[in-house]
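To: structure subgroup
Subject: Chain for Friday's discussion

All,

I'm putting the inputs and outputs inline so they're searchable in the archive.
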Amino acid sequence: MPQVVADVWVPVSPETAFAVSQTTGETRLRWDRFIRHQHLIDADRPGKGVRTFTRARLGPSMISQYASYRPPTSVGMTMVKGPWFFASFGGGWRFTPATQDGVDGCRATWKYSYTIKPAWLRFVAEPIGQWLLGREIRARIAAWADGCRDPEVLAATWADS
């Protein structure tokens, strides 16, 4: 199964890093340039088993479900319904304490795993997927890191919890 991975260090605790990653509404849109809209389905708070609807800025939408939810260390999602070209899609995020240049913070690692359908298309589509999803996950984690440094995102993150 192909995977793309990105990681970054941010100068906030794993608790804060995790909380920013789980923001919704206007706070989420302030840092997450990948999405146009996102909401929880039949739930007020994220958690294992909760489903989420996400519409990407470029149009495709996906319903995913939390496969795991372990604040402040990790979260995992799997696709329930999504674009026709994904046979499967999942994402995982890990947050670990880390010090950089003498500053305490958090190292975040984000990973996407996926398979393409139909199977005969994988030979051509997987290299494109590696490039496209790799570019997207690197841009998205960089935007998330900016959100972890944004006073408005940080204030809203803790106001909502």
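Points worth raising on Friday:
The chain has four helices and seven strands.
Residues 3-159 form a domain with the Alpha-D-Glucose-1,6-Bisphosphate; Chain A, domain 4 fold (CATH 3.30.530.20).

D.
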